[in-house]
Structures are given as structure tokens and as C-alpha cells.
């Protein structure tokens, strides 16, 4: 009995130690990439370019990004409806604003999903349905950004170096393969016959739930909404670029910005900072944009995405205050 308690205490201490190290590693990745960019790019020139940005065109770029938060909330509500969760639309708007704000300080993608899951649990949604809705939402986001990238690749294919061509094709193939695997989950013998219980059973049930709803009307709507989100983001980048003095055609930016957004979603940095900047500088260089202007574009784009989530700070504070007064 005593040995079991000691073993459980050791496991708890191990988990407690792992979490900070994982977070520190992601902070190190972001800082390391930013430092590398500082060494690679003429930083004073990039700051001068940003300081001389045209306010009017910069404002238009910002306004293009503003609706993306509400559209992300709508996408999530569609995925939740497909997962048999019924909540008022205002719940998703508040939760999305708060989760995106908190996600500014957490690992890319994962932090936002963890905050949204917390809102679902506070709203007494079933855990399996909540996880299914978040997986559907993440799936809609990933497939749509790769779809936008695939549409844009032909417009810049001749200018792309072999490495970026390989990355683009690999992402398209990997996404198509992942979707195909989801569609045949129930035909995998050991999954279909698995009769166990516990966490593994629950995860398998969630995976089957995603498979059942992936072709639903709600999921299709979530995919189209996600495409609109990324198209608005790319339009914002177009206007940010114009404010810095260069003009790249919208269709030429489809693949470049989509690639940058995709890598920024990987949970290897703090909200994609550093990773996104490196991808944008490398991608825009293909289109003849200077490294300094490309870095300025990426920083202003990231800053705009952070600013639009500021209302979430107030909403997150209200939620935490409510929990401290009336814990469930």
C-alpha cells in the first residue's frame, strides 16, 4: 500500500517536471528562430520599414483580419453541432476570443484547444463530444489551409526552389492520406473488433465519431468557413505588404502564406512566433520581396492576429472570476 502511494507520488512529480520543460523548449524554439532571423536579416532596416508603413493600407490589412475570430467561432459551432453539442452562438464567440487570447502565450494550436476544452467542460458538455468537435475543427482548419496552398502552388510553381516544391507536394499528399485513413477507420480490423474499456476505448469511439461526421453538412460548412478565414488572412497580408511599399498579387500569396500559417500551427513554438516569420521570409523571398520587408510583414501580421484577440483577455478574466465565485 505504502509502495503504491510512493509510486503514484513519483509519477505525479515526474508529470509536474515534464510540463515546464516542454513549455521552455517551445519558448527556446521561438526565441532561437527569432535570434537566427535577427542575424540573417538587417533588423534596423526591417524596423525602419515597419515604422514607415502607410497607416491607411495597414488599417485595411488589419480590418481584413478582424472578422476571422468570429468566423473561427462559427466554424467551431458547426463542428460542435455535428458532434451533438448544442450551445448558443454567443458561447462560441466568447470562448473563441478568450481561447485565442490565452493561446498567444501557449504552444501553437494546443493551447487554444486546451482553453476551448475548458470552456466546454464548464458548460457541462460530454467529454467525448467535446473532443470530437475539437478534432473536427482542427481537421477543418488543417485541410482548408492545405487546400488553399494547393490552389496557390500552380501560380508560383516556376519560381519555387525544389525544397519548397517538395514541401508543398508532401503536405498535399499527407493531408489526402490522412483524410483517406479517417474514411476507412471502421475497416481496420483491430479497431473495429476492439472491445476494451478505459481511455483507449474512448479515444477509438471519438475517432469513429469523427469518421461518421466528416462528410456531414456541418463539417462541409466548417471547411468552407475555414477557407474564407485563410483567404481573409491572405488579403490582410496583401494590404500589409502594400503598406510596406511592395505589391504581390493575391494569387501568388496563396501558397506562401498558407505554408507559413500551416507551420505556425505546429506545437513546436509559442503561438507560432519565430516559425511563421522564418517561413514568411523564405517564401516571400521567392517572390522577390526583400528579407527586411518580408520580416516586417510577418511581424505585423502576427501582431494584428494578436491584437484582434484582446477582447478575449476581458472574457477570460470574467470566466475565471465566475469560477472562483461559483465553482462547479
If you had to describe this structure to a student in words, what would you say it looks like?
The relative contact order is 0.16. The chain has one domain (2-325). The protein starts with a helix and ends with a helix. Residues 1-6, 11-19 and 324-328 have low confidence and may be disordered. It has helices at 2-40, 43-51, 55-65, 68-82, 89-103, 110-122, 127-156, 162-183, 189-193, 199-213, 217-243, 250-265, 275-286, 291-307, 311-325. 80% of the residues lie in helices and 0% in strands. The protein contains 15 helices and no strands. The longest helix is centred in the first third of the chain and has 39 residues, at 2-40. The protein is mainly α and 328 residues long. α3 (55-65) runs antiparallel to α11. The chain crosses the membrane at residues 21-41, 53-74, 95-119, 139-157, 164-185, 220-241, 253-273, 293-318. It is found in: Cell membrane. Its main location: membrane. This is Flippase-like domain-containing protein. It comes from Pseudoxanthomonas suwonensis.
Helices and strands in order, then pairings?
Elements: H1 2-40, H2 43-51, H3 55-65, H4 68-82, H5 89-103, H6 110-122, H7 127-156, H8 162-183, H9 189-193, H10 199-213, H11 217-243, H12 250-265, H13 275-286, H14 291-307, H15 311-325
Helix pairs in contact: 2-14, 3-11, 4-5, 4-7, 4-11, 5-6, 5-15, 6-7, 7-8, 7-10, 7-11, 7-12, 11-12, 11-14, 12-13, 13-14
Organism: Pseudoxanthomonas suwonensis
Keywords: Cell membrane, Membrane, Transmembrane, Transmembrane helix
InterPro entries: L-PG_synthase/AglD (IPR022791)
